Amino acid sequence: MRDIRNPMQSIVYAVDYPLFSSAAQARRTDPETSKAAARSVDGSAMREALAEAYRAAGADGLTDEEAGTRTGLEGAWKRCSDLRRLGLIEPTGFTRRGRSGREQRVSRWTGGAR
Q1: d(Cα 112, Cα 109) in Å, to the nearest integer?
Q2: Counting CB atoms within 10 angstroms of each CB, which of 15, 65, 69, 70 has the fewest?
Q3: Number of domains in the chain
């Protein structure tokens, strides 16, 4: 298993990360309908698809919206937050205008090596 704190390991496999499990992502305080919805979504497949989109984008990075568009996933921003929390993507300091006309932050793939 890869230690995400060790930047010397350059090979990254998404299945090495705990949030890439298929376990449901819901809070204890969420209503039962939200918990049922969380169980019905394969979050690990979504995170893997998004991780691949960020890897493919290279140094240019993507906004969460762009990552969702490239993968065809709705609600991608929630899974992009997972990738940021794991240190797999990080904000570049740049923004791009989204479909709404608002500026959105751009993130790039780090593979856990910060």
Answers
A1: 8
A2: 15
A3: 1
111/29 Cα distance (integer angstroms):
32
Q: In terms of residue numbers, what domain contains 90?
A: 14-109
Give the global pTM. Answer: 0.66
Q: Is residue 103 one of the residues assigned to a domain?
A: yes
Q: Could you tell me which residues come within 8 angstroms of residue 37 by beta carbon, excluding any fewer than 6 positions away?
A: 26
Cβ–Cβ < 8 Å for 109, 80: no
Rounded-to-integer distance, Cα 97 and Cα 39, Å: 33
pLDDT per position as a tens digit, 56-108: 999 999 999 999 999 998 888 888 998 999 999 999 999 999 999 999 999 99
Write down the residue that tokens 């992502």 correspond to.
25
